[in-house]
Amino acid sequence: MKELLRRIQLITPFALEFPVEPTQFVGRLQPHVAPPNLNPFGRLGRLFSPTVAPYSGVVRADYVQLKPRPGGNQLFFPAFNGTVLPTPAGTRLEGELNGASGTFLFPALFYLAFVLFAFVSLLTRSENTTLADVLIALSMLVFQGLIAVGIPYVIARRRLQRAAFELERDLFYFIQKPTTEVR
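RESULT FIELD:
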């Protein structure tokens, strides 16, 4: 499944280099990352949360997992999973941005099951099914697929590209900025 998501570019590689040591990188990034949200109330519980960090996730000496915290009504939140590698010039952060969330995958899989069922039932409903019936049904299914799967795919791809830009910008800002407590 992950290979398919890589082919359709909903999982993309992401790498950055920073001119600081790995321990300094982790120390400067940690105040800007809230712990993963374990709140049973979801986003509603964020209203009462004391943290104002722009990302949630885990930051360790060798591993980073980041996800933007929702600021509005957005469906797709790409997550970043990566490793912190020491280099002679400083620190290299390598990993993947994963833009495939359940809000994209569920409609796509549901639509695939619907298409298979509709196409099989069309072909087996009677012996006098004509080529015109099949072509009309196929064109309707393709049009519905463009709406049901195509639009969420385009939204997910754009959000992934925007998240890559914002993550790169924020990480460079967090590393250049002196350490202050954000939480």
